[in-house]
Write a structure and sequence with these properties.
The complex is a heterodimer of chains A (54) and B (397). Chain A is 0% helix and 15% strand. Chain A is an all-beta fold. A 7-stranded mixed beta sheet of chain B has the order 1-2-7-8-9-10-11. In chain B, strands 17, 18, 19, 20, 21 and 22 form a 6-stranded parallel beta sheet that branches. The two termini of chain B are 40 Å apart. The chains are: A mainly beta (54), B alpha/beta (397).
Chain lengths: 54, 397
């Protein structure tokens, strides 16, 4: 699955890890994260993330 | 005034004795904008001051060296309380390059006319030699803005930590051991709670990186410089980054005709039956700066508002807006309040905000129609006991 990076703070969303602190289970694709989810580091929304090209 | 950190390294900032409103933060002790001058084979200024005080910064630099000798001006953080003086400083130092990371350059270009500036862009881990000393740069995103970084001088074991470990605290002294420790730790706590509480996660990662460095002195961009009590402030930060609960219960409320206040008093009385610090805060008499500082390390919180115009009291709404943004964690609590005829607003709305804030709600909201009955006040007392019992569990930690 694809990783995404926060354009603001550089935090990386790795779907294998998810974001358990915010209720995003490991294995959740970025596309399937709810729209009201926030970057756990800086608080911006999904719209400020970019796909990491492998 | 002693301004010497190490031989050839001086504080050249500005003490802002009279500032009382720092974008909403009530700075009852004023503040300082710390800038530093390192004199070596090459000279560097670390950060600037608020724009209106740049002439004072320049005077202080000139008392040590000619402005022509400044080779580097390091900008660790683009916020105007540090960067505001950069245009004046860069104009006054003809040979200076502005040292910052790429994100900081973008931010500075949005703030100021930088067309005449010479840039020296650094990345995480880059170094600049000043001769006998080295400037080493560490990116610290979200401590406090995306572009924030630390500058470390390994030869002196000196860390310029920008907003981290800072305090809004104007005083005659520049060093931690010249001030009462409890006072400066309390100021550091207020600063942490009101400025960076929401960034606990990136701050804890930054602290893990800082722990790998040898540090004899931490020079933040506000308040006193840490040299004798580094361990104390580090240990305090390790608790604050996770909002580590202490045996403290807060009853936070606004009131119209004293009905909600009666409920608040009963909750407080219940909590006071336990060995906890039970605090009573009326948002109309206590500034939100103090509220945030107290909430940081409480274990439990009851929040109350009467219903007003089918909503909540605007003074409490403002405080809750502020607290929600600061994202305190690790709290349990409940909502309470009186109402007249509508069950909207009041305790219902407070409850919903507390849910948003991820405060673990231990019971349904407590509501009194018009005026609380003795039975309802006993319910409030019992709910207060629940908070007290829970908070007491954190004694001795």
């Amino acid at each position: 699955m694809k990783k995404y990076i926060c354009d603001v703070c550089g935090w990386i969303y790795d779907p294998e890890i998810g974001d358990p602190d915010s209720g995003i289970a490991p294995g959740t694709a970025f596309e399937d994260i709810p729209d009201d989810w926030e970057c756990p580091e800086c608080g911006v929304g999904k719209e400020d993330f970019s796909l990491i090209e492998e | 005034m002693n301004t010497t950190l190490k031989e050839g390294i001086n504080w050249v900032g500005y003490i802002d004795w009279t500032v009382r409103d720092f974008h909403g933060y009530k700075t009852e002790s004023g503040s300082t904008y710390n800038a530093y001058l390192i004199q070596d084979e090459k000279c560097a200024v670390i950060d600037a001051v608020k724009g209106s005080f740049v002439e004072k910064l320049i005077e202080r630099i000139k008392s040590h060296t000619a402005l022509e000798n400044i080779n580097y001006v390091v900008c660790n953080h683009a916020e105007p309380d540090h960067s505001g003086g950069l245009p004046g400083l860069m104009a006054a130092c003809p040979n200076a390059e502005l040292v910052c990371n790429e994100k900081c350059k973008v931010a500075l270009e949005k703030h100021f006319d930088t067309s005449e500036w010479k840039w020296y862009i650094v990345e995480d881990g880059d170094t600049i030699s000043l001769g006998t000393r080295t400037l080493s740069f560490i990116n610290t995103p979200m401590v406090h803005w995306p572009e924030s970084m630390f500058t470390y001088v390994p030869e002196e074991k000196l860390l310029f930590s920008m907003d981290a470990f800072g305090q809004h605290y104007a005083s005659a002294f520049r060093f931690d051991d010249e001030e009462p420790l409890d006072v400066i730790i309390q100021e550091a706590k207020a600063y942490y709670a009101n400025i960076v509480m929401l960034y606990g996660r990136p701050i804890s990662q930054t602290m893990a990186r800082a722990a790998e460095l040898e540090i004899e002195m931490i020079a933040p961009s506000h308040g006193v410089i840490w040299r004798s009590h580094i361990k104390d402030v580090f240990e305090a930060y390790q608790k604050w980054v996770i909002c580590k609960p202490t045996p403290k219960v807060i009853v936070l409320y606004a009131t119209m005709w004293k009905a909600t206040e009666q409920m608040a008093e009963a909750i407080l009385e219940g909590a006071q039956e336990f060995a906890v610090e039970a605090q009573f805060i009326n948002v109309d008499t206590t500034h939100m700066t103090r509220v945030a500082t107290e909430v940081l390390d409480c274990a439990a919180i009851a929040i109350g508002s009467p219903t007003l115009n089918n909503g909540i009291m605007p003074s409490l709404a403002g405080v809750l807006c502020y607290l929600r943004g600061l994202r305190p964690t690790n709290k349990k609590g409940f909502a309470f309040g009186s109402y007249g005829w509508s069950r909207r607003g009041g305790a219902t709305e407070v409850n919903s905000v507390m849910e948003d804030m991820k405060i673990e709600l231990i019971q349904e909201p407590l509501r009194a129609q018009y005026v609380p009955t003795p039975e309802l006040l006993e319910e409030c007392r019992e709910a207060g006991r629940d908070l007290g019992r829970y908070a007491q569990g954190f004694s001795g930690e």
